[in-house]
Automatic annotation (TrEMBL):
Organism (species): Thermobispora bispora (strain ATCC 19993 / DSM 43833 / CBS 139.67 / JCM 10125 / KCTC 9307 / NBRC 14880 / R51)
Ranges of biased composition (kind: Pro residues): 147-194
Gene Ontology annotations of biological process type: cellulose catabolic process
TM helices/strands, residue ranges: none
Keywords tagged on the record: Carbohydrate metabolism, Cellulose degradation, Disulfide bond, Glycosidase, Hydrolase, Polysaccharide degradation, Signal
Region ranges (Disordered): 130-207
Keyword check for Nuclease: no
SUPFAM superfamilies reported in the protein's UniProt record: Carbohydrate-binding domain, Glycosyl hydrolases family 6, cellulases
Record bears the keyword Disulfide bond: yes
Residues of the active site: 280, 329 (proton donor), 549 (proton acceptor)
Signal peptide coordinates: 1-32
Molecular function as annotated in GO: hydrolase activity, hydrolyzing O-glycosyl compounds; polysaccharide binding
Residues of the CBM2 domain: 36-145
Protein name, entry field: Glucanase
Length: 611
């Protein structure tokens, strides 16, 4: 995970769906029966949407009431010229003027008689947002009498597929509808004692994970940081129960004890939700256990999110402030890596990432004392305009499409497990050298940002301009971006060549900003604290320092982790890091495992330095 790339060259082209769409409250159904030379086509289309000013998230269910279909094309017309499909899933979407076309993909082209298919899109509108009514399948209007009665959607998703279900969870052989955020679920009714706060870090102590603390204490000098709050990562289903380590309940029980021992201040515990199907789709080091093609989205919902939500909603935890960090890298991968990585393309086409994130928000946000921050990558990934704008759109449409609308989240986190500096002290994006902008340097590579804080603040502003409330706040993972030690510059360079100037002035000492695995020379960053800068809710240590980003060579394991050569110090790199060396430390264990040598170096190079 923690991919980074020169996003200038990647972007909109990677988005499959283009056009967009209409709105309307409730749903529209049209039913048709017709006969062609070969087969009787009869269909019913249900159009359900959540809408908000200027935007919408629409789920469509196509029920096949006629003969089996082998390949289908759905068409409909937006009544208003301002309606657009921006981002679609589970079909090839296109829009010409007001006419929208969605064509089946390989995995959902066959729909048995009586079967159904779920597809959807996020879209935008201006003017008005009426519901389309002229649905056609393969040119035949869906406006007749159904040959079988409409089927009531199941309330809960199927837990496991029946053997005849095709690979995607959204196609099923019997008429069924995948769950979409149910408008009937009511928002939280009982606020946490003291009420829901704007910034869960303010005035609170941070949970100290006893397992991370023990690892830190096992290292000479580790006691200087062992009481720092770090996040608990639920990186697979088994992590909920613990699998030999502390499970979620044990952490929350321990958090209650820490809270009670610490007097009157509330306690904030951070839990990373990290198990989407096709996880880490553009890299290998943190590949997960679930696959979209093996019913992963349904398993994510029922075996992962549901049990987590059940535990977190236990009343004995109601005094805790539980911060859920949602799915590092997932939505950003849909922005830049769909064309280059099959697993990302599948994540986009199936809608699994968007639907998984929406499901997690709907479940977790229902718990009054859970606060949600969605991962927004880092400046070296989304900092180019061509990636930034689409990311803002995708964050907005995804979250506005939850049952809580834009109130589904409390904010966003940047730099999770990455190494980008919080602030570059000796130059900023407006610095010029001999009349040449630093944007033109190889290091900055036309990015719009040189560090995480300026990126986080700009992203927050753009999200608010898009429609989020101005109460959203940003988090910055500062666990490993300190860049102290002997190689840290002490002032701006006097060089007149822009490349030399930037390379001698930057505190981020990586070989290339696209390097992300176990970076040599890094140090612990700012210690966690609330309200460090305008718009920033907190500096946090989400990646527990000392836990590896990935193995430096192939190591067999039962965690679904693969070997990513970006973690191999001998690798010569690829287009994403400009064919540079990876800068990764040697002899690293698989991701998440304790890496003593790295922890030692992080302490040596800490900035601010350790006492
Ligand atoms: C790994 C997880 C681990 C987390 C925190 C991720 O890169 O994939 O297994 O829990 O880092 O160290």
């Amino acid at each position: 995970m923690r991919l980074s790339l020169s996003g200038a060259k990647r972007s909109l082209a990677s988005r499959i769906a283009i056009a967009a769409a209409g709105l309307a409250l409730g749903s529209t159904m049209a039913v048709a029966t017709a006969t062609t030379a070969n087969a009787a086509i009869a269909c019913k289309v249900t159009y359900e949407q959540n809408q908000w000013p200027g935007g919408m998230s629409v789920n469509l269910t196509i029920q096949n009431l006629g003969d089996a279909l082998n390949g289908w094309t759905l068409t409909f017309t937006f009544p208003d010229s301002g309606q657009r499909v921006d981002y679609g899933w589970s079909a090839n979407w296109s829009q010409q003027g007001q006419s929208v076309t969605a064509t089946s993909l390989d995995w959902n082209r066959s729909v048995p008689s009586g079967g159904s298919v779920n597809i959807g899109f996020n879209g935008s509108w201006s003017g008005s947002n009426p519901t389309p009514t002229d649905f056609k399948i393969n040119g035949v209007a869906c406006n007749g009498t159904p040959s079988s009665p409409p089927v009531t959607p199941p309330v809960t998703p199927p837990v496991s597929p029946s053997p005849s279900v095709s690979p995607s969870p959204s196609v099923s052989p019997s008429p069924s509808v995948s769950p979409s955020p149910s408008p009937s679920v009511s928002p939280p009714v009982s606020p946490p004692p003291g009420g829901r706060v704007d910034n869960p870090y303010e005035g609170a102590d941070g949970y100290v994970n006893p397992e991370w603390r023990a690892n830190a204490l096992s290292e000479p000098g580790g006691s200087r940081v062992a009481n720092t709050s770090t996040a608990v990562w639920l990186d697979r289903i088994a992590a909920i129960e613990g699998a030999g380590k502390m499970g979620l309940r044990e952490h929350l029980n321990e958090a209650v004890e820490q809270d009670e021992a610490n007097g009157s201040k509330p306690l904030t515990i951070q839990v990373v939700i990290y198990n989407l199907p096709n996880r880490d789709c553009s890299a290998l080091a943190s590949n997960g256990e679930l696959l979209i093609s093996e019913n992963g989205l349904n398993r994510y919902k029922s075996e992962y999110i549901d049990p987590i939500a059940e535990i977190m909603s236990d009343p004995k935890y109601r005094n805790l402030r539980i911060v859920a960090i949602l799915e590092p890298d997932s939505l950003p991968n849909l922005i830049t890596n769909v064309n280059s990585h099959e697993k990302c393309r599948e994540a986009q086409q199936s809608g699994a990432y968007v639907q998984g994130v929406q499901y997690a928000i709907n479940k977790l946000r229902a718990i009054p004392n859970v606060y949600i921050y969605v991962d927004a990558a880092h400046h070296g990934w989304l900092g180019w305009d061509t990636n930034f704008g689409p990311a803002v759109d995708l964050f907005y449409s995804t979250i506005a499409g939850t049952q809580y609308g834009v109130d589904g989240v409390d904010g966003f986190i940047v730099n999770t497990a990455n190494y980008s500096a919080t602030v570059e002290p000796y130059f900023n994006i407006n610095t010029t050298v001999n009349g040449v902008t630093v944007r033109q340097s190889k290091w900055v590579d036309w990015n719009q940002y040189v560090d995480e804080q300026s990126f986080a603040q700009a992203l927050r502003n753009a999200l608010i301009a898009k429609g989020f409330r101005n109460t959203i706040g940003m988090l910055i993972d500062t666990s490993r971006n300190g860049w102290g030690g002997p190689d840290r510059p002490t002032g701006p360079s006097s060089a007149t060549d822009v490349n030399k100037f930037v390379d001698e002035s930057r505190i981020d000492r990586r070989i290339h900003a696209g390097n992300w695995c176990n970076q040599a020379g890094a140090g612990l960053g700012e210690r966690p604290r609330a309200n460090p800068a305008p718009g920033i809710d907190a500096y946090v240590w989400v990646k527990p320092p000392g836990e590896s980003d990935g193995a430096s060579e192939e190591i067999p394991n039962d965690e679904g982790k693969s070997f990513d050569r970006m973690c191999d110090p001998t690798y010569e790199g690829n287009s994403l890091n400009g064919y540079n060396k990876t800068g990764a430390l040697p002899n690293a264990p698989i991701s998440g495992h304790w890496f003593s040598a790295q922890f030692q170096e992080l302490m040596r190079n800490a900035y601010p330095p350790l006492d």
